[in-house]
Write a structure and sequence with these properties.
Order of helices and strands: HHHH
Number of helices: 4
Helix content: over 70%
CATH architecture: Up-down Bundle
CATH superfamily: 23S rRNA-intervening sequence
CATH class: Mainly Alpha
Distance between the termini: 26 Å
Largest sheet: none
Strand content: under 5%
CATH topology: de novo design (two linked rop proteins)
Number of domains: 1
Number of strands: 0
């Protein structure tokens, strides 16, 4: 399999989410939102990998749409975490999301 910018960025993002989750648990004692953020933030890369091996174009589109939902859920989780817990690093992750968004292009069936 060749190089994939999307796969690489999602992997890097997942590592950052894991590190943020560890900080939230160890320093802020935040267990509920951090687990949800960890689940949605790390599932993005797995969904991209699944889409790479889709059985059809429709299957690929379906998997990428689920990936987009997880991205949105992660973004909401980061916003909530910043407001509720007040973690300074969360704003950095939001900036990263805006600087390096995973592109979404509407695909017609």
């Amino acid at each position: 399999m060749g190089k994939s910018i999307l796969r690489d960025k999602s992997y890097d993002f997942a590592l950052k989410i894991v590190k943020l989750s560890q900080v939230l648990v160890s320093e802020k004692k935040e267990y509920i939102l951090s687990k949800q953020l960890l689940r949605s933030g790390t599932s993005i890369g797995a969904l991209i990998r699944e889409a790479e091996f889709a059985q059809s174009k429709a299957d690929f589109i379906h998997k990428m749409r689920i990936c987009l939902k997880e991205l949105r859920e992660t973004k909401v989780g980061l916003l909530m975490m910043d407001l509720i817990v007040g973690v300074h690093g969360v704003k950095l992750y939001l900036i990263i999301l805006h600087q390096h968004p995973i592109p979404y292009r509407h695909v017609q069936h």
